[in-house]
Design goal:
Layout lengths: L5 H37 L15 H11 L10 H18 L9 E3 L2 E3 L9 H9 L2 H11 L3 H32 L4 H10 L8 H14 L11 H4 L9 H26 L13 E3 L5 E3 L4 H26 L7 H32 L6 H21 L11 H12 L1
Length: 409
């Protein structure tokens, strides 16, 4: 199949931006309703059920309410930064989603169209660079509000983001080492041809998921809001649509994080146990593998949506079942546990890859199974050793341990 012409490429790019971001915004609005429904299900109550059947129109009602609501700006606030902070909080989640492939290539009369907004050659690095910008919106919002509660929330946001940003980047280094490429579509194709990265890199997935929980400020890492301590954290002084923008930014980050988990570790849009979607495009535009079809594109989009939806549910499940960490525990987990263990994990995985290459084992199922065995051993060590009152102790354990010893005596 011939490559797209310049006109066809520009038209397809505009259509992809319009369609994908429209669907993505609808999903973000729907996730706000799903959060309430999941919370109600866990707490054995009904949840939203007054606006539309089963409350499905509740996000629209919330949007109208925020548009018409009176906006309050503190007298001592820095007005320019106060207005700019919600926009800066939303921007990274929107832009990062542009490099995530959401389905198999779509055949058209003008050529084969990749279902991704921007297939950047530095997609992996783009994710790391843009994902770290969200903290600027939270910190500026806290500082510009001229409130001590908001300021403390902003300070916590910057400290928490910095603490877990390093661990997040280190958890993705094994993917780069295994894939040998930084483009997300290529990572999906490699998982189609061997095993999903969740098996040979399951420890990396553990570090990545914990780090992204902290990056999205979700329970049990919501120290930047901490209603029992900081009223409402960095957006205490925000109201109306600006407050809604912060909420949209949180749920947008939730959707983007779930999509990244599905792409990096669960094959992206790949349908398991089926080779009919193994479609790739060579540098000269030739199609390699299965024959593209519009129904294959729809099936793979549904597969990607199902995987992303599962991780969205996991985020919500954890939020409504796990209590908040203390601040010292959050910092200890980031600096004393995740970062050192991520460095050791990268070293062990690098040594294992060098050994497999020296043994003449080429990349494929056998190669991935060998790394899976190593990761199973490492995961067992983490599960049966980590947090057995040895590492994630917190400052209070120094006082609790002697008391327990005396009570036992």
């Amino acid at each position: 199949m011939e490559p797209l012409s310049t006109t066809a490429f520009l038209v397809s790019a505009a259509v992809k931006v319009l369609v994908i971001f429209t669907v993505w915004l609808l999903v973000v609005a729907g996730v706000t309703l799903a959060e309430r429904k999941v919370a109600a299900w866990i707490q054995d109550r009904s949840g939203p059920n007054r606006v539309g059947p089963w409350g499905v129109l509740q996000p629209i009602a919330d949007g109208i309410k925020n548009f018409v609501k009176e906006e309050h700006i503190p007298g001592g606030a820095s007005r320019i930064l106060f207005h700019l902070a919600p926009v800066m909080a939303m921007f990274p989640a929107f832009v990062v989603f542009a490099v995530i492939p959401v389905a198999a290539p779509l055949p058209t009369p003008w050529g084969l169209v990749e279902v991704i907004i921007a297939d950047l050659p530095i997609g992996f690095l783009f994710v790391l660079a843009l994902a770290s910008l969200g903290v600027y919106g939270l910190t500026l919002g806290g500082w510009a509000s001229n409130s001590k509660y908001s300021f403390l929330g902003g300070v916590r946001a910057s400290a928490q983001m910095i603490s877990y940003e390093v661990a997040l980047g280190l958890s993705l280094v094994p993917i780069f080492m295994l894939a040998g490429n930084v483009t997300l579509p290529e990572m999906v194709r490699q998982q189609q041809n061997s095993l999903w990265y969740i098996l040979p890199l399951m420890v990396g997935f553990l570090f990545f998921s914990v780090s992204y929980f902290a990056e999205t400020n979700r329970m049990p890492f919501d120290m930047v809001e901490a209603e029992s301590e900081l009223v409402y954290g960095f957006h205490t002084e925000y109201s109306a649509m600006k407050f809604a923008m912060f909420m949209m930014a949180e749920y947008a980050n939730l959707v983007t994080a779930s999509a990244l988990m599905a792409t990096f570790f669960f094959g992206g849009w790949d349908i398991p146990f089926w080779t009919g979607d193994n479609i790739s495009v060579a540098a000269d535009g030739a199609v390699v593998g299965a024959v593209p079809a519009w129904w294959i594109t729809l099936l793979t989009a549904a597969s990607f949506a199902a995987k992303t939806g599962f991780f969205i549910f996991v985020f919500m499940w954890v939020r409504w079942t796990v209590p908040r960490f203390r601040y010292d525990q959050v910092m200890s987990l980031g600096w004393k546990v995740l970062i050192p263990m991520s460095v050791v994990y990268v070293a062990i995985l690098g040594a294992a890859m060098l050994a497999l290459d020296a043994a003449g084992i080429e990349f494929g199922v056998r190669y991935a199974l060998s790394l899976t065995a190593i990761n199973v051993v490492l995961m067992a060590g983490i599960v049966f050793w980590l947090d057995r009152r040895r590492i994630i102790l917190g400052a209070a354990w120094r006082q609790v341990r002697p008391q327990q010893a005396r009570s036992r005596g």
